[in-house]
Design goal:
The protein is an all-alpha fold and 93 residues long. It has two domains: 1-29; 31-85, no CATH class. It has four helices and no strands. It is globular, with a radius of gyration of 15 Å.
């Protein structure tokens, strides 16, 4: 990942955290290794792990997706599996 991409994502994360704080929306930061372990991602290198996540999505949902889409699905799966009823969000405006 290039410096520009990292900087952009870091700024986005900061904006999302600040918005949640201002709106009193609880949030949790989840390290990549946590959601990958939950999903059962295998591999040593970054590219191996990304390919593994793509294969898991194909197995679970029978869809072919890009690396980034597979990661997003993995994060979503982790959140829905671990948050349970706490995932319900009220008062969205």
């Amino acid at each position: 990942m290039g410096v520009t991409v990292f900087e952009t994502l870091a700024r986005l994360q900061g904006i999302l955290m600040e918005t949640c704080f201002e709106l009193e929306i609880p949030y949790k930061i989840c390290p990549t290794n946590t959601w990958r372990a939950h999903c059962g991602v295998k591999g040593v290198s970054r590219s191996d792990k990304k390919k593994s996540m793509q294969l898991l999505v194909k197995k679970w949902y029978d869809v072919s997706v890009s690396n980034d889409e597979a990661d997003a699905i993995g994060i979503g799966k982790y959140v829905t599996d671990t948050a349970g009823a706490a995932l319900v969000v009220e008062n969205w405006e």
